[in-house]
C-alpha cells in the first residue's frame, strides 16, 4: 500500500491538464478546513468547488471495483472505511458551503472537465 500513489495519479494529471488547457486555474492537494489529514485533489477556492479523482479499486467503483481474494476480510474492511471517509468528507465540505464532485479514474478527462465547467459556469 505504501507504493500506491496518493496524488498525481495518471487520471488526476490528465484531468488537470485538460482543465488547464481550458483556462481553468486551481489549487492542488488543498487542505480541507478543520481536517488536518484530508486534502482536496483539485480545488477551485473562489467557487468553493472540491474535485476528487477516485481510484476504482480504492474507492469501490461499481463498474470496475474488485474484491481481493487474499486476506479478503481485511480488504473489505479497509475499502468500506475508505467509502465511509469519502462520505464524511463530502458531508463536512457541504456543511461549510463547498460543492463536491467525485470523478472515477476511468472517466475521460474531457467529460470530467465538462462536469466541472458546468458547476463553475453556474458560479460565475
From TrEMBL:
Alphabetized UniProt keyword annotations: DNA damage, DNA repair, Endonuclease, Hydrolase, Nuclease
Molecular function via GO: endonuclease activity; hydrolase activity
Top-level taxon of origin: Bacteria
SUPFAM superfamilies: Restriction endonuclease-like (SSF52980)
Pfam families noted in UniProt: Vsr (PF03852)
Family named by the database record: Belongs to the Vsr family.
Protein name: T/G mismatch-specific endonuclease
Organism: Nocardioides albertanoniae
Lineage: Bacteria, Bacillati, Actinomycetota, Actinomycetes, Propionibacteriales
Amino acid at each position: 500500500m505504501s507504493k500506491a500513489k496518493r496524488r498525481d495519479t495518471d487520471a488526476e494529471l490528465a484531468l488537470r491538464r485538460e482543465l488547464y488547457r481550458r483556462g481553468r486555474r486551481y489549487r492542488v492537494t488543498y487542505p480541507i478546513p478543520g481536517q488536518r489529514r484530508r486534502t482536496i485533489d483539485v480545488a477551485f477556492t473562489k467557487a468553493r468547488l472540491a474535485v476528487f479523482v477516485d481510484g476504482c479499486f480504492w474507492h469501490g467503483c461499481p463498474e470496475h471495483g474488485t474484491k481481493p481474494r487474499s486476506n479478503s476480510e481485511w480488504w473489505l474492511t479497509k475499502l468500506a472505511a475508505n467509502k465511509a471517509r469519502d462520505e464524511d468528507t463530502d458531508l463536512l465540505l457541504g456543511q461549510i458551503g463547498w460543492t463536491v464532485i467525485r470523478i472515477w479514474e476511468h472517466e475521460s478527462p474531457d467529460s470530467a472537465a465538462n462536469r466541472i465547467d458546468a458547476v463553475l459556469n453556474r458560479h460565475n
